[in-house]
Amino acid sequence: MQTDSSTPGVHAGRLSSDQYAHNFCDAHPPLNLAQAKIEADRCYYCYDAPCQTACPTGIDIPSFIHRIADDNIRGAAHTILKANPLGGMCARVCPTEVLCEQACVRNTNEDKPVEIGALQRYATDKYFEKPGAPLFTRAAPTGRKVAVVGAGPAGLACAHGLARLGHSVVLMDANPKLGGLNEYGLATYKTTDGFAQKEIDWLLSIGGIEVRENTRLGADVQLDALTREFDAVFLGLGLAGVNAIGIAEPQATGVRNAVEFIAELRQAPAYAKVPVGRKVVVIGGGMTAVDAAVQSRKLGAESVTIVYRRGAAEMSASEYEQEWAQKNGVSIHHWAAPKALLTEGGHITGIQLGCTRVEGGKLVETGEQFTLEADVVLKAIGQSFVAQPLGTALELRQGRIVTDDQGRTSHAKVWAGGDCRVGGRDLTVEAVEHGKVAALSIHAALNA
Hints:
Layout: E1 2-3, E2 10-12, H1 17-23, H2 33-40, H3 50-54, H4 61-69, H5 73-83, H6 87-93, H7 100-103, H8 106-109, H9 116-129, E3 145-149, H10 153-164, E4 168-172, H11 181-184, H12 195-204, E5 209-212, H13 223-229, E6 232-235, E7 241-242, E8 255-257, H14 258-267, E9 276-277, E10 279-283, H15 287-298, E11 303-307, H16 319-327, E12 330-333, E13 336-344, E14 347-359, E15 362-373, E16 376-379, E17 383-384, E18 396-397, E19 400-401, E20 414-416, H17 428-446
Parallel strand pairs: 3-4, 3-6, 4-5, 6-20, 8-16, 10-11, 10-16, 11-12
Antiparallel strand pairs: 1-2, 2-9, 7-17, 13-14, 14-15, 18-19
Helix pairs in contact: 2-4, 4-5, 4-9, 5-9, 6-9, 10-17, 14-15, 15-16
């Protein structure tokens, strides 16, 4: 067994190779042909379908399902990817249970909607296995050049849309790999076999997109220089900052940001190389908290607890994700707020928590306290936008970039989308829609 010598109780290599392979296999295996046909036949192919209205990218869901039923995989994939160029990843990570599937009319008379997400994955996976001739081709070159800064879902969708319209795109990202959260921020078991990069390879195959990795706004490139050099700029910067937990954080090993832990696991050459604590506490109530907690268990942690200051209904992680965590051996302790991180010899030993309740519409502490032992505490209480690289060029509100519905910012040559844009639900599928809409808006502006 390998040991992280800096923190007692934190070890790598806790499990056998077979256990790692089992724990980190595809969490939700794809449908086979027979299953896909049966599920497709359950669709009513509604006119003015509510599921399509509920989809942030407006995929014609009845149409692609009908094509699956007819064994027209290429046609189904075209319908999906025309509306959502990251439709394969969204099929894996989109909270369909609260979007398209929640709107499915099957819910009226049955307790089970059509498995739209699984069917979308079936169609896109089968297409990517044997793509054949390109689904989309570039329009005639326009001679216009657009910079897209940030290669997460919003930036990728914008770059693809602009390239299809004939513009030349320079796609920049601070990381050594493209993909943003799709590559660095999602649980490994949600996107196995390097799917994020396979999808990006397909997206870039449209042509007309020059990639510049390891290029950071504010350090390697400046916004004012980009607005001079390019005809337009799209910012898909995501959220690079991590919120503080609101209590003193001692200089001790064993405390880290959950997003860093998830990224380390996604990029690790082997699961056995990633250290994990024996007793892990995750602070937060969103998807990042669930992903960090479940993966800690899958790496071999003996106990993992999510602590959240409010109740289950207030957690931003969906009910489905909360149940998934519990099925994987994660305990969720609601109505508990961090009070102090406990240390000994420079290492985390536990966390002191105060019980909370809602009183007069406000969250208050009851005065009761308890302690959880921990050799690792992961902070997953949300991320924030780092605006410093923008200077004073753009209007901000609530710490994010102000745009109109088309993604246009206060600067005539700059558009923005994804998590860095004020408002929205911080969903991958919504970021894709931001990028897609912004590409059309930039195209219209350049042709005005």
